[in-house]
Amino acid sequence: MATQTATQKNPSFVLKEAGKVIYEDRPVPELPSPYDVIVKPRWTGICGSDVHYWVEGRIGHFIVEKPMVLGHESAGIVHAVGDKVKTLKVGDRVAMEPGVPCRRCLRCKDGKYNLCPDMAFAATPPYDGTLARYYTLPEDYCYQLPEHMSLEEGALIEPTAVAVHITKQAGIRPSDTVVVFGAGPVGLLCCAVAKAYGATKIVTVDINEERLKFALDYAATTSFRTARVSAEENAKNMIKECGLGSGADVIIDATGAEPCIQTAIHALRLGGTYVQGGMGKPDITFPIMAMCTKELNLKGSFRYGSGDYQTAVDLVATGRISVKQLISGKVKFDEAEKAFGDVKQGKGIKILIEGPEE
Ligand SMILES: [Zn+2]
Ligand SMILES: [Zn+2]
User: For the Enoyl reductase (ER) domain, which residue ranges apply (predicted)?
Assistant: First the structure.
């Protein structure tokens, strides 16, 4: 692909339509309000959702109807600040929270702004993402990185915040036993956050042996590979092999896969808690009788809400969780399409794209 992004004013990596990406020179943004800042994103992680839009052109009822800049897992350097901005100055290094809610609706006022129906979220149609030279955000959606934290680590704050929100929904307490289905970036980070919150036993579950090995090195204490048997049998085997006694206190699903969800419900203890973090098929067969008679607590989890981004920065800044190990590759801006291809093929854990050259 021929590109001259270096000479463009605001080079942007744009999804034209399903399967087709191009580099476009977009207008340089102006500050939308005196409370906003313009950031130059320096590193951006590729997320499964970006790849999904690239391949399918849609996720559920979010449909790409006009060209959209991709990317939402970014950290960058403040380039300009509005008159009313108090806490940031030009040159500050920040993690960029990519979803800005309306701040006015009932859910926003309720403190659950991730449920805002008018959320403007980067790289979710019709809103442009962060894979560009410039990106505007309100001051309070930028989180300063301490000096010892790199911008690469800053880009990993987004999936970390997803994990922080999932574990918040799960209400993990010290000495809980926690099972996490899926050892991709979010599953791994859920293991790490559960560990930071004092969970004693953390079981990572996947079908990929290599991923399980990584998860054990990273944050899990035990691993379990599901077999092609019934969900109830998988659950029974997992409880026995992993020493989960009468079942796990908390189970997080970071896969969205039907057999995982079914196994999870059967592997929970009476009165245990289940959180759905992964997105898969919209409808599945669900063991609702077990849920009823075990009096399980079931919760969904969507993106991140009040305090989650700051908690994620703090967890990394204090060394309670490490995100460096999750970075499996780094590419230049001009190689973004190749990086998307690698993620699609399931290569590596987290690939970062560098911001455009000056
Ligand atoms: Zn993401
Ligand atoms: Zn709102």
Answer: 19-353
